[in-house]
Amino acid sequence: MKKKAICFTRGGKQIIERINQKYLEQGAEPMEAYLSSDKVEPGEGFCKVEGPLGAWTAEHFHPGNGLLFIGAVGIAVRALAGLPKDKLSDCPVVVMDDTAQFVIPILSGHAGGANGWAAEIAAMLGAVPVITTSTDRNEAFSVDTFAMERRLTITEKEGIRKVSVKALEEKKVTLSIKNYPPKQPVDLIIADKTDAECTLLLKPKPYTVGVGMKKNKDAGEAEAFLLDTLKDLEIPVSDVYALCTIDIKEEEPALLAMRDKYRIPVFSFDRELLEKAEGDFTASEFVREQVGVDNVCERAAVLGAGPGAELILRKQARDGMTIAVAKRMI
After folding, report:
1. What is the DSSP letter of 321?
2. How far apart are CA 36 and CA 278, in angstroms?
3. 320 and 214 Cβ atoms separated by less than 8 Å
């Protein structure tokens, strides 16, 4: 996620500085820092919020971002009014008091990763993570965490609640995978589709998208090309398992913007691995001269999809960007 932090006091400002220093020491990207106060100077690395806090929150509350409020929980709750819509896609939100004692995830704890982010911040500063989700507090099975960690698509939100209630009651949660159809109703089935009776269907993400692009490609143009390509193939973005590219392109801002917005990981491969990809690929001597291998998008898509991959869309080019799509064997 793209982490953004906002504070309202001098103590909050110092906390953001401490957290960002920890991120820098770890070689990680620091949070974007914002200050909403007329009594504290923003200083280096901070942007001052001039308008209403609700307007700032609405501007930054979208998939791909994570918001950290350094202040009272009530401030964050009022700022978020009307914004949360869906527990599977809402922006993760964490609150920390301005004495750095408690870190509280208040929105999208599992699917958005707010619980994990809160624990990370707490470990950095020696604070107490205040986790309130029932499955975590009772050390019970969490189906949304299970699905997120395994890149599975949850097909019905109501099923999450039903499975969680069963887990909290310490009842057995049953699971069937696609090659072993259950002989009786089960709680979870992992499959593309099923006629069997279950509480919740978890769908594997079948496709990888190979991407090549010029340096500093416009993020909006790159996203439009991706979405147009998927639309033509009638593939929803939620069915994309990974964006795949060559290692020298893995930090391209346009690629990272798509990663963050759609919560799709980026897989990168060096030239030697790309050359070992099995298949018949569209060769380009120009591409070879630029990056050392004759094709990036097709080879990367196939490698990212794994053994048995099928290249279902060969290289498509548009405005300095190439895309190919492979289907995984799942």
Report:
1. E
2. 54
3. yes
Which value, in Å, is the radius of gyration of the alpha carbons in the chain? 22
Helices (H), 138-270: 143-149, 157-168, 219-232, 253-262
> Distance between CA atoms of 103 and 129, rounded to whole angstroms?
5
Whole-number Å distance between alpha carbons of 68 and 66: 7
Q: What is the pLDDT of residues 29-67, one digit of tens each?
A: 999 999 999 889 888 899 999 999 999 999 999 888 999
Residue closest to 64 by CA, chosen among 269, 219, 234, 202: 219
Q: What is the 3-state secondary structure (H, E, C) of 91-130?
A: CCEEEECCCCCEEEEEECCCCCCHHHHHHHHHHHHCCEEC
The torsion defined by the Cα of 160, 166, 171 and 172, in degrees rounded to 10, comes to: -20
pTM score, whole prediction: 0.77
pLDDT tens digit string along 288-328? 988 889 999 999 999 999 999 999 999 999 999 999 999 99
Neighbours of 57 (CB within 10 A): 23
